[in-house]
Amino acid sequence: MLLFWVEFIGTFIGLFISAELIAKGADELEEVLGQGITGGILLGFITALPETIFVIIASLGGSLDVAFGSAIGGNILLFTVGAGLVGIVYFWKWKNNLVMDQEYQVENKFLIISTVALVLITLYSKLNVIAGVCLILIYVYYVIYRLRKFKRDKPIAKKEVDYVKISIFMVVGAILLIILSHYFVEQLDQISLSFGIPAVWISLVLSPIAGELEEKISAFRLITLSKKGGSLSLLSFVGSKIENNTVLLGIIGLFGDYSLRPVIPEMVSLILVNVSVLRVLFDRKLTVLESSLLIIAYAVIIIALYYL
């Protein structure tokens, strides 16, 4: 058992190192690519990789319930506790409320589109190939839209950028993230099972905590690196969760007909969380009060889902 805890701590340290590398690479890359591409696309994609891989593996194995819980659990966690902690940490570090960059308007638009799609899918009550393809196409369009906007409004770099160093940071950080997140989820599952925690809670609550851990650590490091780090962090949150709303749920649909009727409460919770974030960030500001309410909302949602 001692060896297990040593491995657990070692994995956690490794995740912290991967977060540090990704955060430093992203901070420098933002000068060249802007917050939209860096946060919404690159950081969003990299930090969503662990749960994406987890959903694919679970779907291939026929564990669609586990895949579904992991896909939506990340959104619920990151859009409540994650965003809330970012707002509080930002205020603690910089002594004012977090203000989103203008680039957020694109992510806001696609978060609305993906949320509307979730409502329609919920009414359809099924994730199948048709629904899966439609959801994935939304994300494809988001990436294309972002790239076109970047090409049109390419920012001017304010300093020389070492692309080799940035590439090393991002690639090594991403590789560490992919490898270690898998082990961390397994270790967390083992701890959970030893305490008799139900499987649905492992997939809906504990696995997302493990999968999103690096993203939150990266966000906090970005905040400490610069004042723009808070906006970049939230952009990466929204970008990765647009991917969750579309690609991850779409993957489940591609692997079989998955009825949403038994998980309507979870789908409604996901939609409500998305709407809450859209409302909170409508003015592109995240106050300490709003941050605190988001954290409280997570506890309320999880308790409600437990009893429903």
UniProtKB/TrEMBL annotation:
Protein name according to UniProt: Sodium/calcium exchanger protein
Organism: Sulfolobus acidocaldarius (strain ATCC 33909 / DSM 639 / JCM 8929 / NBRC 15157 / NCIMB 11770)
Taxonomic lineage from the root: Archaea, Thermoproteota, Thermoprotei, Sulfolobales, Sulfolobaceae
The keyword Membrane belongs to this UniProt entry's keyword annotation: yes
An annotated GO BP: intracellular calcium ion homeostasis
Transmembrane region(s): 41-60, 72-92, 112-142, 163-185, 262-281, 288-307
Locations listed in the record: Endomembrane system
Molecular function GO terms recorded: calcium:proton antiporter activity
Domain Sodium/calcium exchanger membrane region stretches: 5-147, 168-306
Keywords from the named record: Ion transport, Membrane, Transmembrane, Transmembrane helix, Transport
Membrane topology per record: Multi-pass membrane protein
Transmembrane helix in keyword set: yes
Pfam families reported in the protein's UniProt record: Na_Ca_ex
GO cellular component, one term: membrane
UniProt cross-references to InterPro entries, sorted A to Z: CaH_exchang, NaCa_Exmemb, NCX_ion-bd_dom_sf
